[in-house]
Amino acid sequence: MSIKNAERTICGEVVGVQLSHVSSTQLVKQWRKFLSEVKNKTNLIKFISREWRREDCMRSLKGKTLFLTAESECWKVTEKGSKGSVQRTGREIFNALIGLHSFTGCDSVSTFAGKGKIGALKILISNEEARRAFRELGQSWTVSEDLCTLLEKFTCSLYIPVGNTTSHLNDARYELFCAKNSEL
Question: How far is CA 129 from CA 88, 92, 149, in A?
Answer without folding.
Answer: 21, 11, 10
